[in-house]
């Protein structure tokens, strides 16, 4: 995670000069939270960060209920990726050449995602979205993100009909929710 944050510190943070929102999905939730914490601790730019929107993963200070990808053999990892995928897009995982290319990336990301982050709450609102068909990352687990914000009055969880990639399964509903949540935060 340190390497990710170091690169983002150099390549992204110098350009944040206006209010912004960080959106993370899956591994990206841990990265966005770690980067937000870095902004607050090291860069004193927390006044620019208006919202963390976290999707498809429990909070990064708790152990992920899914088995780490780096511990799986190719066959099991491919099956797990298919299970997590939007059902209309699962056939992509049937191509061995494609899988040989992406499996190492998923394993590397899994090593980063598996690093637990400290539980220090941020003074930034957090809103979480999840898929109601995701077996292990259920609404109760997603609600644990509330432990990572001091803005409890602005915290909310929205569950959508779908799997891990619910945003492609119910795109219109997710876009509508994003508009509503962004408007609410921006109006504060």
Automatic annotation (TrEMBL):
Residues 18-176 form the Thioesterase domain. This is oleoyl-[acyl-carrier-protein] hydrolase. It holds the Pfam family Thioesterase. Its EC number is 3.1.2.14. Belongs to the thioesterase family. InterPro entries: AB_hydrolase_fold, TEII, Thioesterase. It comes from the Eukaryota. GO terms for molecular function: fatty acyl-[ACP] hydrolase activity. It is an enzyme of class 3 (hydrolase). The lineage of its organism: Eukaryota, Metazoa, Spiralia, Gnathifera, Rotifera. GO terms for biological process: lipid biosynthetic process.
